[in-house]
Specification:
The chain has 270 residues and is of the alpha/beta class. 47% of the residues lie in helices and 17% in strands. The chain is built from 13 helices and ten strands. The chain has a six-stranded parallel beta sheet. α6 links the parallel β7 (119-124) and β8 (145-150). Uridine-5'-diphosphate is lined by residues 124-126, 154, 177-180, 203-204, 206-207. Uridine-5'-diphosphate binds next to α9.
Amino acid sequence: MLLDSCGRCSIQHAVDLPSVYILGVRVDRVTFQQTLELLEAFIAQGTPHQIVTVNPEFVMLAQRNLEFRKVINQSALALPDGIGVWWASRHLGYPVPERVPGVDLVMRLAQLSARKGYRMYFLGAMPGVAARAAAVLQSRFPGAVVVGSYAGSPRIEENAAIVQRIRAQNPDILFVAFGAPTQDLWIARNLEALGVPVCVGVGGSFDYIAGVRPLAPQWMRRVGLEWFHRLITQPWRWRRMLALPVFVWRVLWSKSNWKDPRPANPPSHL
Ligand code: UDP
């Protein structure tokens, strides 16, 4: 796939990348394999790229947080994480080929690291969790290269010290688990200073990989019921999860009030 760079490095994106805009939020229509190929190309290129994993909560947050929306829409890759995004892309007539969940991406990149020596850094989550996730991945994929892990904090006062700490290890891949939108805004703010070719916001992925939180069973993931698993295992999140039905309703409503703008799906206000 061709790569193009606009500006110095914060707005680098892949050209020829088909996207769908869901309620004004970009999601790239890429397969898992294309994602991995693109990420490898970013690493070969060496300049920093931001990757976001978009789910319905992101889309709803981005309705009122315009900075977050801008970060997603200007990222190098906006991946379709979440069954809701998969469904919405189909409903709008611009289907994403498959889902690319953040937690699976972390595992596949660890596997690639074992094969190709890519240097990975794990930032975020509760103290000890990032290191535990890294250790789990190293035992699962012997040879995977972990150059650092640090709980850190997204607080602005810690910014410079964390960037310095990461730069010192010269990673190819940086996973950031501060939750959305904090992690994605943090990456956008520090992308150029970090200089890491692949910077991905990964939400609760470290918690799942480290076994701190249970991952939904494979059959539930396959049929897209992770949200239900989340609701029963983390019932305190019910308020946040109300974003899901609101998302569905908004997508249905937007379609019925929308004159199909083919061939260009991006709304003109972007
Ligand atoms: N987290 C963190 N610092 C913060 C807020 C959150 O390290 O200030 C971590 C939290 O421990 C968890 C991760 O961010 O590991 C993702 O949190 P959440 O479950 O809210 O994200 P989601 O998976 O819903 O995107």
